Amino acid sequence: AGGKGVNVARALAALGVPCVVAGLVGGRTGAEILRGLKAERIDCSCTRVRGESRTCTILDDPTSREQTVLNEPGPDVSEAELARFVGRYRSLFCQISAVVITGSLPPGLPADTYATLVRIAHDAGKRVFLDATGIPIANIGFKPAAKFYGRPKVVIGDINATADLTPCQLPFGF
Q1: DSSP 107
Q2: How far apart are CA 95 and CA 75, in angstroms?
Q3: Is 8 left (phi over 0), alpha (psi -120 to 50) or beta?
Q4: DSSP 167
Q5: What is the C-alpha to C-alpha distance for residues 159 and 9, in angstroms, rounded to an integer?
């Protein structure tokens, strides 16, 4: 169980790189995520929320080699829950050298939440790797003709969402 962030942690753990997962977990699904992290001996500093963590179902068609992804919405996250998470996030900086921010924002969070997390990490001198889905790229601080604060080292995004940030046509057939 878990999403992109947990998969990154699994990969790092398999390579022997110490890591800690920080995120929002709620309900039975959240409890299952926490049990899985404990069983895999992956350090975790997650913030509990009242809602149920979302599930994702992937239908794999081996004949066509295509997948259909069915994502449920995440839990509504309150301002107080977000504030608790940000406090934990900041407290981890003494243990880490880099931050990986992944996934989509749960309902209820401000559109600039990732920009805030990037800025906080950057201000603490941490490298940031961002793989965000479902948010306008402008909400993480990118402005085509302006300086971008926070400066993640790597941004992974939908080609259509990032096309306006490049000075030339990208050579992809999307």
Answers
A1: T
A2: 28
A3: alpha
A4: S
A5: 25
The answer to whether residues 16 and 41 touch, using CB atoms and an 8 Å cutoff, is no
Integer-rounded Cα Rg, in Å, for the chain is 17
What does the angle CA 33 – CA 100 – CA 79 come to, to the nearest 5 degrees? 70
List the chain pLDDT tens, one digit each, 174 residues: 677 888 888 988 889 988 899 999 999 999 998 999 999 999 999 999 999 888 888 898 999 989 888 888 888 899 999 999 999 999 999 888 889 888 878 888 888 888 889 889 988 999 888 887 665 555 555 544 334 444 444 444 444 444 444 444 444 443
CA–CA gap between residue 150 and residue 122 (Å, rounded): 5
Dihedral angle sign, alpha carbons of residues 84, 86, 92, 94: negative
Q: Are 83 and 108 in contact (CB under 8 A)?
A: no
Cβ–Cβ under 8 Å, residues 60 and 67:
yes
Q: What is the pTM of this model?
A: 0.75
CA–CA distance, 84 with 134 (Å, rounded to integer): 23
